[in-house]
């Protein structure tokens, strides 16, 4: 019994020493740590500027946002071979398979192309060697003007959602620096996610934009938790309040990442829409940890310490 108490005491002392060292390190370097997200944010702006100058757009868009034809063929075929065979016959073809969730057996494959429906049908019937009908295939065509209009509406929805989120944050805290820190962190989270998504070669779909709408909510929850605890909880040091928020916030974020990752593993083989949504959320949650616990925490800590110093002088 005494040995157990001794071991527990040693563990407690060890945690306390580690916490003290961590607090000293953060007190000394928290402003310097702000350079890490600042450099990534600067790179993101430069990348998007260069990308826009080359392509006339900020992202790669799939046919749901550019217009084109989607064809599902209920047949087994090697995906890479189909893409190679059609690359010179259809405009910007993209091919992916549909697989059984349990057996992982291929059930069909999907072809997305900017070519119109008639051209796509003619090319595919010639390639496959049989007539395509409702029993062996399905066709969906979206016009370019309709897709562009839909894309603009979705972008406006994201901007409005971000704007109203910013208003709510300012109403909650009614202080410029903490509110701005939350908004900067959320903006950086979305921007960095968009850039990495682009760098990985993904094409953004309408479902992907919906995922960015969801990401706005995910981006501010831990920031609000941190800011609320540091500014409104009294009787504790700034470091202790930050550490308490960090443990709670990291638990929330890691739990969300694991849940989304598990869902991604399950749906990855048969749902391109859900795969894109979950991929964006995982990337965004990763950057959320960076921007909350380096960007926001540095600004909030500087603000809180300065506020304490001014109150002490008074």
Can you walk through the features of this model?
With 314 residues, the protein is an alpha+beta fold. It folds into two domains: 27-60 and 146-313, Multidrug efflux transporter AcrB transmembrane fold (Up-down Bundle), CATH 1.20.1640; 68-142, 2-Layer Sandwich (Alpha-Beta Plaits), CATH 3.30.70.330. The chain has helices at residues 2-33, 35-55, 63-66, 79-86, 117-128, 144-173, 176-199, 206-232, 238-267, 272-313, and strands spanning 68-73, 94-99, 106-113, 137-142. Strand 2 and strand 3 (106-113) form a beta hairpin. This is Protein-export membrane protein SecF. Residues 133-304 form the Protein export membrane protein SecD/SecF C-terminal domain. Keywords: Cell membrane, Membrane, Protein transport, Translocation, Transmembrane, Transmembrane helix, Transport.
Gist?
The chain is an alpha+beta fold. The chain folds into two domains: 202 residues, Multidrug efflux transporter AcrB transmembrane fold, CATH 1.20.1640.10; 75 residues, Alpha-Beta Plaits.
